[in-house]
Design a protein that fits this description.
With 178 residues, the chain is an all-alpha fold. It has a two-stranded parallel sheet with strand order 1-2. Helix 1 runs parallel beside helix 7 and helix 6 runs antiparallel to helix 7. The termini are far apart.
Amino acid sequence: MNMAVWAGLFGIFLCFLADLAQLAKRSLWRTGLFAAGCLLQLTAGGQLLWQSGFWRVFSLGRAIGCTVGVLGFCVLIYVLFFSLPAQTTYTCCETPVVQTGAYGLCRHPGVWCYGICLLGFWLAGRTLALGLAFLLWTAADIVWVFFQDKVVFPRTLTGYAQYQLAVPFLWPRWPRQR
């Protein structure tokens, strides 16, 4: 298996360790591990995409895949860093639950954005390594958010138990038409 695929999995593991550091009230470790994990995933994904040479041969399918990947990435950045209060979300241990926007549809909307981003880049690059990254990284992300949902967030987010009752885990609840 391509080393970059392993590196991306290790990046997700670093994010998992960041949550353990948060539980241990080590906010500096949490911030550093989370940043390192995100940077490692970003670098590994970029390397896999670069290795695919997707830009050498133009096709409508590759262009659509690249567009889907970039849009998924942009929405992921928005969901994780701009729709949450970044000052407290990624630095403090106790924060209130955000129940609006994407977080009103499901408790972990980033999983969808991450998976769509990886799927798009797999469609653009069309390599086995990108396909493995899409499958393995998305599966690892789901395991990680399951851990967050059951262990981390009930201890670190004020009102999370009520939020769990009101908003679905992964499958979005779309607003009703009036």
